[in-house]
Fold this protein.
Amino acid sequence: MRQILISKEDFKSLNRWIDLENRVNLTVIPAGKQLLLEGTQNDFLNIVDMLTDELMSRGIENNSSINQIGYELERLIDLITDAAFE
């Protein structure tokens, strides 16, 4: 099992793009002002795949530049990727 400690704000951002409770098999454990996400490497890679799909569909403008949504999605992808490959 892999674990990642994230802020509640990052969790809200993830839930904005992915329905974590219904689409991903993760355990969410309150940890003070943060949340501990626990799952397999595959669970985290699935999240990265879903975020990447959102990045491609909503985060890139017609001229191939990244928009504000794209920057948020890239940040979340980096956060989850670090957990998947720790």
User: Anything to note?
Assistant: The first strand starts at residue 2 and ends at 7. The radius of gyration is 13 Å.
